[in-house]
Amino acid sequence: MTDNKSGVLVVVEVEDSQPIDLGLEMLALARRLTGIMGGTVTAVAFGTGLETTGETLTAYGADQVLLNDNEIFTNFHAEAWLPDLSKIITEVEPALVLIGHSESGTDLAPRLAFRLDVDVATGCESIDIVNGRPHMTRSCFGGLAREVITFTKTPALATIRSKSQQALVPDMKRSAEIKHVSSILDVNAIRTRVVNRDREKAVGVQMESAKVVIGGGLGLGGPEGFKTLNEIAELVDGAVGASRAACDLDWCPRSYQIGLSGRTVAPELYIAVGISGASHHMAGCGNSKTIVSVNSDPKAEIFKSSRFGIVGNSQEIMPALAEEIRKLKA
Ligand SMILES: Cc1cc2nc3c(=O)[nH]c(=O)nc-3n(C[C@H](O)[C@H](O)[C@H](O)COP(=O)(O)OP(=O)(O)OC[C@H]3O[C@@H](n4cnc5c(N)ncnc54)[C@H](O)[C@@H]3O)c2cc1C
User: N or C: where does the chain have the smaller number of CB atoms within 10 Å of the terminal CB?
Assistant: First the structure.
């Protein structure tokens, strides 16, 4: 690097006092990158009830853990996080800062970049080190192409897509320096106030960790199509996702959306039902191990990415599939 900044700082989101999977995946990336460019891996977590968080982050690859355990950080609030996070980054002097490409992360990262007067690459899928500098790869042109970005200013900031990295196997014997930092936040300086927070109840398996994900699109013909998908998902211990078009029509919750502007999944099996296969959608499921599609149009784009394709009417095929699985399980 051209200055004395080194190592990688990972901002790990915590939910119910536990680091989310994406945070652990970024720690694995940070370990790989520090293996090439040197320096240490610092994990930073904000929240409450972080008593065991330090040990978990250490086991997953952190050399140093900084915990900001404070009531005010129970729920994400970008304005509340920024002063402390900026201070930590200025003190640690990492060459690279990794933030999850989550709802919170995509809110936080550009604000942080502005505050630190550095640059940010959002939605990155991989990072390589070329001549000591991070080169970030991400989708562009609606998922039709990939671009590689690098910055001259340090630290470089990047948000990382879920499931683009694999978390390390935790090593409980690893040791790290675990520090509690005190907040410099002036609560009176926060200009926005969260008046209400409605948490959507998660039903069944989390989409990102499901081995089987069934995605529904406009070819389902209506919201009732999702009922059958939910039944099948329950039978195979899977999760249901959707195309943006189906979410736009309120056929299913917005949280189901898979794709460039939705969630990223990489299950063992992705079943795409009545989905055309637009690049925007494939950006969120293209890394699935096996894709099976059901589509009435034999020329549908989705078949190009599919290992197996079923040409036919989803409204006949999906109930029949549910019935067969039920029989097999009985
Ligand atoms: C900036 C931007 C971001 C976007 N982000 C996303 C994103 O994150 N996720 C996303 O999904 N999209 C996203 N989109 C939208 C995307 O481009 C497509 O419009 C969308 O994915 C199409 O959804 P669909 O496949 O359900 O619908 P359609 O494209 O209308 O496809 C429906 C498919 O169903 C088939 N079909 C019809 N009837 C039946 C039947 N009875 N049985 C079986 N098959 C049938 C048709 O042959 C067709 O292939 C984005 C677009 C933009 C511009």
Answer: C
Judge if 169 and 71 occupy the same domain: yes
Q: What is the mean pLDDT of each run of 10 residues along the chain (330 residues)?
A: 83 93 97 97 96 97 97 92 97 98 96 98 96 95 92 97 95 97 92 84 81 98 97 96 98 95 94 97 95 98 98 97 95
Closest atom of ligand 1 to 216 CA is: 26
Q: What is the rounded CA–CA span in Å between residue 61 and residue 8?
A: 11
Kindly report the pTM of this predicted structure: 0.86
Q: Judging by beta carbons within 10 Å of its beta carbon (0-12, 13-18, 19+), is residue 231 exposed, middle or buried?
A: middle
Ligand 1 pocket test, pick from 271, 282, 295, 306 with the greatest ligand atom count within 8 Å of Cβ, gives 295
Same-domain check for residues 135 and 255? no
Q: How far apart are CA 254 and CA 251, in angstroms?
A: 9
Which residue type occupies 123? G
Candidates 214, 281, 282, 305: which one to mutate for ligand 1, based on the most atoms within 8 Å of Cβ?
Answer: 281
